[in-house]
Structures are given as structure tokens and as C-alpha cells.
Amino acid sequence: MSTALIIATLTMREAVRRRLVAALAVITLGMVALSSWGFYKLSHSSSLTSGEKGLALPESFILFMFMFSFVVALSASAIASPAVSGEIDSGVLQTVLARPVRRGEVLLGKWLGLAALLAAYTAAVTGLQVAIVYLVSGYAPPNPAAAAALMFGEGTVLLTLVLLLSTRLSALAAGVVGVALFGAAWLVGVAGTLGVAFRVHSLHTAAVISQYLLPTNGLWNGAIYYLEPSSFITQAAAGSPSTEGPFFASAGPSWQYLTWAVIWLLLVGILGLVSLERREL
Amino acid sequence: MAALAGLSMTVERGEVFGFLGPNGSGKTTAVKLLLGLVRPSGGEAMVLGAPAGDRETRRQIGYLPELFRYQSWLNAREVLVLHCRLLRMPRARWQPAADEALHVVGLDGRGDDKVGTFSKGMQQRLGLGVALLGEPALVVLDEPTSALDPVGRHDVRTIIRGLRDSGVTVFLNTHLLEEAENVCDRVMVISKGRSLATGTLAELKGLRQNVRLRVTGLPAGWWEPLTSFGRWNAAGDWLSVEDMNAGQVPDLVAAIVALGGRVEAVVPEQQSLEERFLELLGETREGA
């Protein structure tokens, strides 16, 4: 087995042993259970018309998935921030790097292990949420698999960025900077939708630029598109104001944008490798 | 500022080489350079025939860091197996090698315990076990007994002697002079990143020494031909020569006999390593 795979399995084992997986599972099950109650009440409410339910169920579903995308992203930041600097500070990494291994292999292994955890979590939480909501309300989003893939992409972007930061900053600083940038990118995205609504073009431009600088919010917007029913798109095209806002996407991500996201991941990943390679331990 | 400057040394294969110096003298930096954990801003170092830090050569090097920390959420055996895997040992060797290492460092029966539950001394023993994996040609030990009780220290010294007996080179970083005196074939004393002295312990300790002699039958004015040996003091039959060249003791005795003196006792007062160590450090302080 290659060094990267040895480190990847070690990283996953750490997440299990340190009860990260168990803690996430418990809290997620709690949130899904809570949502099932809410979706049941919503879908069985006698005070809502079927048209209102057709709006409220998908909007609520998107909101819940937004919360889970936050959990994915913040978990990515939390697990990546100590992965390098924390282990350098404690001395654990030095014992590994004194072996006949490349630093790049170790970093790649950590990335692979953490990304696999994110993938498993995103798949599990999306599957669970879709299944529960369908069971209690009969509603199903059009393409949850594509949405989950984009949410995973969003988490992976933050994971890669924080791993890069972790090669230089302390665990605490890397995590805080990562979360702050993630939050800023989301807010700029919201400002961009306001810019479109109120025809302030500079706000819209800033949002577009930020989507390229840090593709977290751009990928989340793509996920929204795959979670909303086609009726939302046609209503928006007809000028209905009810579908506008930060939880609406009029189009899926372009292949150019997805390509850029992959290039971004590669660039930041390579920067991380170079940074660790040059770091004195 | 350079952590190390003008440091030049050669360690022979199969010897236990002590790298002695006070805290902050650059010992750990030197070791990290040899392992490729830090890169030199200048200079050259070869380890086992390859440039320092060479990845393949690290397969033959065992390392116990000064800051020994292992994955606290693994058990001791899992830590050892992880290092067997990183060393690319065949799978069939992982468990036997881990068991053997646990036995050698005195952790029999603790292999299935989480490292996080270990005392510092036990973690240091585990670190030594990790360093011994894969039949290394060179074992680098950075303050290997810093967390150990007297029994542990004795065990480590026995292990080091065992390594030397089986032809393994040991590079021992220590500020414990007793440790160096116990196990090292040769030592280098460094301070502020510079080498102060290097050689066998006998060489290092014995360059200058004091000698006490009991002599009778010396003529008056006897000391005049002998002043070149060192500073003389006399108290009755006992004479002492301070700060003389250790190699000249036979010459001194011959010169006294030639003067007609009867030498009844010669007591060399060899400097302890500690005295020599402090003296060397004192010289650099004065020189600084």
C-alpha cells in the first residue's frame, strides 16, 4: 500500500477513534429526526393550500440542506486545521516524516482520508434526509445525488484551503481563517443576489469574483439548483418574486465553473505541498 | 542567526557517538539536519554514504526524537505496526517485529494499551522501540532517557550497548555526562552550534591533569629542572603538579629519578568529564 493510502486510512481511523464520527452521527440523526417532525407537520397542515405546500416543502428542504452544507464545511475546517500544524506542534508528524516517506505523500494521504470522511458524511446525510422527507411528506428533490456531489465539492474546497493554511498557521488560526473566509464568501454571494434584485451591478460583480476566488458558495449555489423543483425555475423566469433570494439558483453550475473548481483544488493542493516541503520541522 | 556554524564531525560505523552540549547548543538541530527534517542554509552532511535527509537512506535510520509523541489514540502495537508499514517491511514481519520491539524496551504485556494512557517514561520506551524497528544501521537518540527513572536509564544503556555489539551505529544526543561516560566510544562537545572538543572520553578528559607524587631524597633546588612540567606545590613528602600534559607522567617520574629522588607513589588526578565539560564551556564564555 502506498504511503498516501497508509496515512489516509490512519486519518480515517483517527476520526473514528476520537469519536468524531460518532458525535457527528448522533447530532445528525437528531437534526434529521427534528426535520422529519417539521416536514410531517408542514405536509399535513390543513391551513396550507397545495400550492403553498409545493413552495414551502422544497424551500424547507433547501434550508435543511443548507444547514447540512454548513456542517460539512465547518467539519472540513475543524478536521483539517490540526491535521498538519497540530501534529507538528505535538511532534507526531516528525516521527512519521523521519521515515522513508515524502512529505507530499503524507499530506496527500491526510487529504484523501479527510475527503473520504466528508464524502461519506455528505452521502449519508443527503440520503437520510431525502429518505425521511419522502417518507413523511412524499416530497423528493429532483436530483439529490448531484446536489450531494456539489456539497461535497464545497466541503473539499474548504478542506483543501484549511490544510494549506495548516502547513503554516497554528491549528486555531488555520481553522478560524478558513471559517471566516467561508462565511465571507457566502455573504458576498448573498450580497450578489441583492445586487441582482436591486440592480447594483458592482455587488453582483463582487459575488462573481468571490465565487472564483473561493468556490465554496458557487458550488453551494449549484447544489441549490439540483434541489429545487423545475416549477421554481419557470416561476422565476415568469418573474415571480417568491422564488428570489439567497436560496434560489436560476441555473446549475457551468462545466467551465466546475473545471475551474477542480483547477482551484489542484492549485491550492500544490501550494500546500510546496509549503509543507519547505517547512522546517 | 545560524543555529550551527563550523560544525564538522565524522562518526565511524559501529560506534556509539555522544553529542554533548548544554541546552540550546544546537544538538537537536544537528540531528534534524541529519534526518532531513530541517534543511541547512549551507554546508554538507553525508549519512550512511548518502546526502543527509536522503529518503531511501532513512529506511536504515531509527530515530527517537527529543519530543517523543505518538498517536495517542492508537495502542502501542498499532504504533509499531504503522512504522513497520512506513518502513515497507513485509506484512508477515509486522507483528513479530512489533512484539520484539515491545519486549526489548520492556513493554511486554502493554502492547494493547492506548498510547494516550502511557506515562511519559513508557512513551519514551515506545519511542525507542519505534527507533529499533527494521534493523537500522544507524540509531539516532535525542535525549533518550529524559523521561526515565534510574531503572529505565539503566535499561536504555543496556540497549545501546547491545546495539553497538551488533554493529549498529548510535548517535546519542545528551546533556547527561554520566550517560556519555557510560556508553559512548567517542564524544563531541558543542556549544552555541560550534564544536569545542571531540575524541574518546579518555582523550577528552585526560589532556591536562594533576598528578600527586610522594617523593623522598630529592636534593635542594630540585624543582628548577622540573618547572616545565607544570605548576608545583609541595607539602612534606607530597608534591603535586597541576595542569600538566597527561602523556608526560612517565617523563616526569624519570626526571625525578634522574635527580636522585625515590618515587614512592604516583597518583594521577584525572579530571571528571563534568569538570572538563564545564571547563570547555567556560572557555567559550570567556572567548565570547
Your description of this structure?
- The model of chain A has no long low-confidence stretch (mean pLDDT 92).
- The two termini of chain A are 26 Å apart.
- Chain A has one domain (3-278).
- Chain A is 80% helix and 0% strand.
- Chain A is globular.
- Chain A has helices at residues 3-17, 20-43, 50-80, 85-90, 92-97, 103-137, 144-166, 171-197, 201-213, 216-227, 230-237, 255-278.
- With 281 residues, chain A is mainly alpha-helical.
- Chain B is of the alpha/beta class.
- Chain B has two domains: 16-203, Rossmann fold; 207-274, Alpha-Beta Plaits (2-Layer Sandwich), CATH 3.30.70.
- Chain B is 35% helix and 23% strand.
- Chain B contains nine helices and twelve strands.
- In chain B, the strands form three sheets. A six-stranded mixed sheet of chain B has the order 4-5-6-1-7-8, sandwiched between helices.
- In chain B, a hairpin with a 2-residue loop joins strand 7 (186-191) and strand 8.
- Chain B is elongated and about 80 Å long.
- The model of chain B has no long low-confidence stretch (mean pLDDT 88).
